[in-house]
Amino acid sequence: YCRMCGGPMELALPEGDGQWRHVCQRCSYVDYQNPRLVVGCIVQHEGRILLCRRGIEPQRGLWTPHPAPSLAAPAGYLECGESSAAGAARETLEEAGARVDIQGPFCHYDIPGISQIYVLFRGRLAPPFTYAAQQPESLEAALFAPEEIPWDQLAFSSVSIALRSYLADQASGRFAVHHGVIQKRKGSGPNEPGSFQLVDHFALPTTVPSRQQD
C-alpha cells in the first residue's frame, strides 16, 4: 500500500521512465527502490584490527570489521540525517562498543547483484581504548594481528576484499582510497570462495603517509 495515501500499489511503467516501478493507483505516487548504503570502519589499534563476530543473520557466527555479526568490521545501514562518517562511527559504537577517531575514507565498493553500496573508513580506537561485543548484533569483539585474521571465517566478500586492500596498503606505508565493483556469482553465498571478484578497481594514493598517521 502507498506510504502517502494508503492506496493500492501496482507495478507500472511511468511515462518517460525505462524501469518498472511501484505506483499508487490512487494518488500516482511512485515508490522508488534504490540501492542501500552501508557504512563502516576498519579500526586499528596498535597494529591490530578490530573485528566483530556476528550475532544475527545473515552469516551469524562469522567475523566482520563492519557492523554485521559474522566475522567482520563494524558496519551497517546509513540513517537519514547523518553523514557517512558519523554513521560509520555510530555503527562501531553500537556493534563493538568502541569509540573511534575517523582518519579518512578507505573504500567505496558497489555490489550491484544485491543492490548495496559499501563505504568504509579508516579509524583508530579513541580513548578510553575499550571495546566489547554489543548483543544481539555481535557475539564477540576482538583485536587481530594481520597474521591472525581468520580469512575462512569472514562474513562477507566485501570484508575479505577490504581487509586485503587495507593490509596491502599498510605494508606499503601509504594508504589509498579504493573504488571498485564486486561481482558475485548468482546464487552464491555472502563470502563463498571463488564466487566473487573485484573489477574496475582503482586506488588513489593519499597525500599523508600511513606511518605519520599510525
From TrEMBL:
<dbReference type="InterPro" id="IPR029401">
    <property type="entry name" value="Nudix_N"/>
</dbReference>
<dbReference type="InterPro" id="IPR000086">
    <property type="entry name" value="NUDIX_hydrolase_dom"/>
</dbReference>
<dbReference type="Pfam" id="PF00293">
    <property type="entry name" value="NUDIX"/>
</dbReference>
<dbReference type="GO" id="GO:0016787">
    <property type="term" value="F:hydrolase activity"/>
</dbReference>
<dbReference type="InterPro" id="IPR015797">
    <property type="entry name" value="NUDIX_hydrolase-like_dom_sf"/>
</dbReference>
<keyword id="KW-0378">Hydrolase</keyword>
<feature type="domain" description="Nudix hydrolase">
    <location>
        <begin position="34"/>
        <end position="167"/>
    </location>
</feature>
<dbReference type="InterPro" id="IPR020084">
    <property type="entry name" value="NUDIX_hydrolase_CS"/>
</dbReference>
<protein>
    <recommendedName>
        <fullName>Nudix hydrolase domain-containing protein</fullName>
    </recommendedName>
</protein>
<dbReference type="Pfam" id="PF14803">
    <property type="entry name" value="Zn_ribbon_Nudix"/>
</dbReference>
